[in-house]
Design goal:
The protein is mostly beta strands. It has helices spanning 118-123, 185-191, and strands spanning 10-13, 16-19, 39-44, 51-58, 61-66, 76-79, 90-95, 104-108, 113-116, 133-137, 148-153, 161-166, 170-175, 203-206, 212-217, 223-228, 232-237, 243-248, 256-260, 263-267.
Length: 268
């Protein structure tokens, strides 16, 4: 087509340089306003499902596609609330290998967090869209009714501890018993708790920052960077949650943050 601008094939980001491998122009999923698509890379070892996968959310669905597939067509597409009026859609997700097989977290717009097994989703009969969930946390907005904007596994916890960061500015900390594989979701949920209080979540960190959009652990898990709606990036000591500092450049809302070597980078 005359005047058509070629697609940019070279990209440079804080993480490195990238080259566009292919472009898909047919069978696309319609863009969903105010529903940001996020990507998670997951690797399964052994078994028929062995390999790398891309987990991504679009609209009301959570999709899983083989990493090395050129078209990235999903091998399974999950919808968590099939009702006509949906009060929650997937917003964020995180993967971490875990001994109990419960390695995938999904955060929702209604504040809930679902704990599940990626392998179990891939083993489900083809054509099914109903997810197999081990537990639903913050059900019925029991602890926080705001949107869950980030879920993270705590580094070096062997998949036994994770966080849910909410638009309210709260960080809910959960601990799970890695020996609960195969138990019913209700029994598993009762063990996602603090040993001392028996409460769920085990602890809460509250930030007066206008809300949390994203968070990221440094590689050794000693510090947590939080991208806030007031335009700042806060740095917290882990696991105490004590503030170590931060920075703010202008008033632009920080949508995400990432660690690059020993430095944290926030983007608007």
């Amino acid at each position: 087509m005359a005047g058509h601008q070629a697609v940019k094939s070279q990209f440079k980001t804080a993480e490195g340089r990238y080259t566009l491998h292919s472009e898909k122009t047919t069978g696309l999923v319609p863009f969903a306003m105010r529903r940001t698509t996020r990507l998670t890379i997951a690797t399964l070892h052994s078994g028929e499902e062995e390999g790398m996968y891309v987990v991504y959310n679009v609209g009301d669905y959570l999709h899983v596609a083989p990493f090395d597939a050129t078209e990235k067509d999903p091998v399974c597409s999950l919808i968590f609330n099939p009702s006509a009026v949906r009060d929650g859609h997937p917003c964020c997700h995180a993967y971490c290998p875990a001994r109990d097989g419960l390695d995938l977290l999904v955060g929702f717009a209604n504040g809930e967090v679902v704990l599940m097994s990626l392998r179990a989703q891939l083993q489900a009969p083809p054509g099914g869209s109903r997810p197999t969930a081990a537990a639903t946390l913050n059900a019925d907005q029991m602890h926080d009714s705001s949107r869950c904007n980030a879920v993270l596994w705590v580094p070096r916890s062997n998949g036994s501890q994770f966080l849910a960061c909410h638009a309210s500015g709260s960080i809910l900390v959960y601990k799970k018993n890695p020996g609960m594989t195969g138990e019913s979701s209700g029994k598993l949920l009762s063990h996602l708790s603090s040993k001392s209080t028996g409460s769920n979540p085990s602890s809460t960190i509250s930030l007066a920052c206008g809300g949390i959009n994203d968070a990221a652990f440094c590689p050794d898990g000693s510090r947590l960077a939080v991208a806030c709606r007031d335009g700042s990036v806060r740095l917290l000591e882990w696991p105490s949650g004590a503030s170590l500092g931060g920075y703010q450049v202008g008033r632009a809302v920080k949508q995400s943050c990432r660690w690059v070597r020993a430095c944290v980078v926030g983007s608007a």
